[in-house]
Specification:
single chain; mainly alpha; 2 helices; 18% helix; globular; disordered C terminus
């Protein structure tokens, strides 16, 4: 059921021709690992078409434990080189 709902949302955003590039499960144990600098996934994926990432947290995700954050409107700025994107960390 969730899969159909998610595909429907993606089709509303991207059109009916939706392809899955990959699906992964990311594990981030408490107090282990490193911070991920601000970035756009498109810089790391060799895809030359409209791209959308869908992310679902399985556990509670907060700013205190390192949830994913989004810069509003950043999708309108085009591709930002990773070195520059990592410098523009907004507060809040």
């Amino acid at each position: 059921m969730l899969k159909r709902k998610l595909v429907g949302i993606l089709q509303d955003l991207l059109g009916p021709d939706v392809l899955l590039f990959r699906d992964i499960l990311m594990l981030k144990p408490a107090k282990v690992g490193s911070k991920m600098p601000w970035h756009q996934d498109s810089n790391y994926w060799p895809i030359h078409r409209r791209l959308c990432s869908a992310w679902t947290a399985l556990d509670e995700a907060t700013t205190l434990n390192g949830c994913m954050r989004v810069v509003p409107g950043s999708h309108t700025r085009g591709l930002i080189p990773p070195a520059q994107a990592g410098c523009a960390v907004p507060d809040g």
